[in-house]
Amino acid sequence: MSAPPAEDLLEEWKSEQERLRQQVVEVDTEDWQRKPDFSGLQRVGGMDLSFIKGDDFNACAQLVVLSYPDLKLLYEDSQMVTLTAPYVAGFLAFRETPFLLEALQRLRMKQPNLLPQVVFVDGNGLFHYREFGLACHLGVLSGLPCVGVAKNLLQVQGVHKSEEHQAQIAALQKGGDSFPLTAASGKVLGKALRSSDSSSKPVYVSVGHRISLDTAVRLTHSCCRYRVPEPIRQADCRSREYLRKHFPAADACTKE
C-alpha cells in the first residue's frame, strides 16, 4: 500500500472540487428528461472499475452503452489501467475519473453516434462530504448528464444508519418507493430508492450533473431489472468477466 497523500495535495484536491462544484447543474437540461416515459432517450451508459483482489492499482475500467428502454448492449469498452492516485475517502474521483473520461473519449472518436445521453456511475454525486462526488466530477468534465448510484450508504453530513433510517427503509413497500437523504443543514442530497419489488435493500441515488434528483430517481428505477440499475450492473459484470478471462488465477472484486 502506498503512503497517504500529503496534506497539501488534499488541500489542492479540495480546492479543485470546490471550483468544479460551481459548474454542477442540478436541473433537467434535456427534453427527454421532462417526458413521463423518457421519450427521446435512446442510449444510457454505465461505468465502473473492477480490481484484482489484493491489487489496489491495476484495474479494468469499463464503459457500456445500452439501448433504452429495452436495455440491450450497444457498445462496450474494457481497458486495463494503472491507477496512480491512492484511495482517499471523499476523493475517489481523482483516482478514477481520468480513466473513465478516456473511455468516453475513445467512444467519441470511434462511434460518436453511440455516445450515451446519460451516464450512470457506481458511486455518489451530490451525496458527498463536499457535495461533489465521482458522478459530479465525471459529469462536469465530460459535459454529459450523470447519475450517481451507490450500493452502500455514505454516512455524511448528518445522514447516518440510525434506527430512523432503518425504519424508513422498512417502510419502502415496492419498487420505485424512495425517501430523501437530508443533511443536517436541511438540504436534500439524494434519495434512498427501493429499485425493484424483489429487493428490499435500497440503492442511494444522487445528482451528478445536468439532471434533477426526481428525474434521476425515476430514471434509475426505470433501468432496474434487479437491485442495481442495468447500466452499472452490466459494467460491473463485464469488467469482472474481463479480469477473469485475462487474469484467471486472480479473484476479481469491485469496490462497494
Automatic annotation (TrEMBL):
Transmembrane segments: none
Cofactor section: Mg(2+)
GO-annotated molecular function: DNA binding; metal ion binding; RNA endonuclease activity producing 5'-phosphomonoesters, hydrolytic mechanism; single-stranded RNA binding
Keywords on record: Cytoplasm, DNA-binding, Endonuclease, Hydrolase, Magnesium, Metal-binding, Nuclease, Nucleus, RNA-binding
Intracellular or extracellular location(s): Cytoplasm, Stress granule; Nucleus, Nucleolus
GO biological process: one example: DNA repair
Task performed by this protein: Endoribonuclease that specifically cleaves inosine-containing RNAs: cleaves RNA at the second phosphodiester bond 3' to inosine. Active against both single-stranded and double-stranded RNAs. Has strong preference for single-stranded RNAs (ssRNAs) toward double-stranded RNAs (dsRNAs). Cleaves mRNAs and tRNAs containing inosine. Also able to cleave structure-specific dsRNA substrates containing the specific sites 5'-IIUI-3' and 5'-UIUU-3'.
HAMAP family reported in the protein's UniProt record: Endonuclease_5
Record family assignment: Belongs to the endonuclease V family.
Record's subunit section: Monomer. Interacts with PABPC1; the interaction is RNA-dependent and stimulates ENDOV activity.
Name used for this protein in its record: Endonuclease V
Organism whose genome encodes this protein: Parambassis ranga (Indian glassy fish)
Gene behind this protein: endov
